[in-house]
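@channel anyone free to eyeball this complex?
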Amino acid sequence: MGSFLLFRLVHGLVVVAGVVLLVSVMIHIAPGDPAMLLVGDSPVPREQLEQIRRDLGLDRPIAVQIVSNLVRFARGDLGSSLRTNRPVLSDLTRVIPSTFMLAVSGMFIGIAVGVPIGVLAATRRGEWVDSLATAFGVLGISLPTFWTGILAIALFSVQLGWFPTGGQGEVRMLVLPALTLGWFAAGALARILRSGMLEALSQDHINVARAKGLRERTVVLKHALRSALIPAVTLVTVQFGALLSGTVIVETVFARDGLGRFLVHGILQKDFPVVQGAVLVIAVIYTAINLFTDLVYLQLDPRLRYA
Amino acid sequence: MRRRMMTIVAVAAVLAFQQTALTAPLPRVGGTLVLATDEDADRLDPNLSGQRASTIVYTQIFEPLILRDPKDKAFKPWLATSWQASPDGKTYTFRLRQDVKFHDGTPFNAAAVKFNFDRTHNPALSTRCVGCALGFYDSAEVVDPFTVRVHLKSPWAPFLDALTTAYLMVSPTAVAKAGDRDFGRQPVGSGPFRFVEWIPNDRIVLERNPDYTWSPAVFTHRGKAYLDRVIYKVIPEPSSRVAALETGEVQLVRIVSSEDFQRLVKDARYAPVVGLLPGVPWTWAINTTKFPTSELAVRQALNLGIDREIIAKAVFRAFQAYGAFRPAYTLYSPVSWAYDKSAEPYSFDRARASSLLDGAGWRAGPDGIREKAGQRLEIYLVSWEHGVPELMQAQLRRIGISLRVGILDTLSVNAAQRRGESHMGAVPASRTDPDILSLLLHSRNVGGGFNFSFVKDPELDRLLDQGAIETNLAQRRQFYVRAARLAMERAYMLPVHTRDNIGLASTRVQGLRFDAAGLFPMLHDVWLAP
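replying in thread with the prediction:
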């Protein structure tokens, strides 16, 4: 176990370093002149733009810029945003908790709603409950979050006045965005669980359990669910990683600060330090989640322990 | 008896008068105004920043030396009580108010003004200020504690205009304390509102400056602002911004979509907020170095072949009822002082466009698109907004021009234009001084600057240069009128419609006015009805 962990940690480090390197190169060779964007919506003289480019080191050859940025990065200096001059580290420490809260609450709703619905659909297969649950799942996956988010605002904020239209700082402001994300997550989970359960319920060991006289409820929840959870766990962990980095749409619609928005704005303005810092965090998160998933697998599936 | 009647009449008259006086609402002191903006500020530092998202906020915190009166556009005193330009246009002397204090207690004086000018033009700080005298500023001199003299390297007529927008005064003590790079996060000015806090990407909170007694004559009342607090909330998604207005979370919204505007302006609880912008209207820069737009006939055909009335009405009808987003036929919007009808050589004329193209050898091909020597008349246009490009595409097809439209993010639009990959690209540019035209069309701004028409026209350069140093207003105006006319005759650009500042406010918001630039609300006189 110890050597396994060590191996995985080193492996993770290599992956993260590779990702950061690749993204750094990409953001530098992407088209566009950040200096023109930094002055805003109004033109300025060329000499001024050249002064700004010099200040930001944009007049150097691209290769030199990439190397110099990576060296600075490797030293542990995440730099400052080209746009706001705020240290990237302080931006990251601000946005990560915000995104984390959103992702966790979205995931929580996804699990709390998706798992029961998936189980229900499997056990009542073919009945109207199944159709309803499947419809719920399909809609959740297919409807774009920018649409469901705006609908949620229109209904629950403007019409009913139950929740604010967005923002952060209070729990009330988290409800609508979490529901929007949650529906999406619940949809996928419900479908995976349904098929996982159907497969598990057709296995031999289920018949043995029934033959032993166990209650149906125990059969379903204790025995079938456990096998069905394995693919579901994969999905949850992958989704969580995706949620942590991909909440940009929900963050934009509900005016919340977060890692997704931070990264996207950084890309759209070629703000290199921002992009590098954000991608580093995301790469670490994904790698850590993958490691965590594998560890959970080892717990859930005894067959893997002796591999 | 008569006397009694007189008394009754007199009392009745007094009561009647009181009644009418009472029906005009008196400004209410207090309350918090929440504005929704689309983007967070970059730095609240007028010496070093110029982005609109920041200027909207810091024009309440910092003050200029002079301002343009929004009503008559003339320069009026603010922190400076009087000013004089030397006959050669290279020296400006300002007499300053003596009763002004920055929010940290530092007195405002000539030394502070000098500090601000020097800081803005410190090359080590690479200012991003928009419209400042970069390249012209030489030095500032403290003549006496409340008289400062600014020296320019060469005469620059836009300087007074720059003073109204690009040079707002910051507290030198506060900069020394926070450092140049960090001052933008802890701004200290002298304005009617002072900074409280900034939660990035969420909100910026300002509160009334209790010591404010130096309001300029242009403000409608003396003394402190009415509002207790002003909060700028960042809501990037347009529908969410409008939703926040409808729930009452915000009272003023910038940048509203045409559909939302149309829906809410009919509601008695909301009123439109309109700022007509001077400067260059929404205009496409036409790449004069790339075939086929390198041909004059093609560029002129473009100007003749689009129906601006229909385009503006189709995309912006809801705003037109308020005088905004009108068709534009020249390079200055109608509210600019350099605007002149003589600089509008083209109207919508398909026949003339076609005959120009015929005369240049462009014959209609099998699919209706014109061809010449095996080349199709294909033009690539880049923008970041839908609407106008698609309408133009349909209209230009009728005269045999194929318009390929690329709707991209701002970086890619910028890249396509800089590399000369596109034939036409968007360059909106509002400014109160007409010299803005030189940023778009002067040869020195080609290659790394904003001249995306890649125009190097000595005659045009001369007119723009003369306009930049001419101090006589009437003559100055003539230079720009002639420059605009020349640029239009040679079809270096394609103006389409005016671009204005349209928003929505709750009717609780009273006393709201924009500055002469049409962009920045003057919140000192704003109050909230219950």
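from a first look: Chain B has a mean pLDDT of 92.
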